[in-house]
Amino acid sequence: MEDVLEEVVSSDDLKKFERIYNEQLRSAHVTQKAQFEYAWCLVRSKYPADIRKGIMLLEDLYCNHSDSEKRDCLYYLAIGNARIKEYTKALAYVRSFLQVEPGNDQVQHLEMLIKKKMEKVQSYLGSCFIKKYKKNGFDSSKKWKNKRTTRRIVNKYTYYCDCKFPSFSTFK
C-alpha cells in the first residue's frame, strides 16, 4: 500500500473541484458532496495553507452534517493533520475511527505511518538535545558539580518532549 501521507492531488483535479465548490458557494447552496470533494483535494495538496483549509471544511462537514460523511471525514482529517505534522490530532482522529471500525486495515496502516513519523521527530529532537548540551560542556561522562543545574536541564528536556510530542505509552 502506497504512503497515503505522501500522495499529492493533481492541479487539474484541485481546480475542477474548487470551481464546482465556488460556483455553489456563490449560489448560497453548497452540497455535502461538493464540500467533501473540495476538502478531499485540499487535504492532499502540497501546500500547508490548502491542507489547513481542507481540514476546516472537513471539520465543518463532520460537525454540521449527516453521519454518512463522518467516517470519511475522520480518515481525511487524520491524513490532513499528519501532513501538517499535527501528529497527536491525527492519532486522535484515527483512534476515533478505530473505535467505530476496529478492524479497518486502511486506518490501522495510517496509524502505523503516523506513529513512525512521530518516532522520527522524537528521535531527531532527542539527538538535537544531546548535541546541544554536549556542545555546551554538559557531557554525561563528566560529573556535574551543581545538582540543581543538572535537574533543571534534565527536567527541561523531559518537559519539552512530553508536552510537544507525548510518549507512545500514552497512546497504547
UniProtKB/TrEMBL annotation:
Membrane topology field: Single-pass membrane protein
Sequence intervals crossing the membrane: none
A single Gene Ontology CC term: mitochondrial outer membrane
Stored Pfam families: Fis1_TPR_C, Fis1_TPR_N
UniProt main location, coarse: mitochondrion
Family stated for the protein in its record: Belongs to the FIS1 family.
Protein name stated in the entry: Mitochondrial fission 1 protein isoform X1
Protein source organism: Ceratina calcarata
Lineage: Eukaryota, Metazoa, Ecdysozoa, Arthropoda, Hexapoda
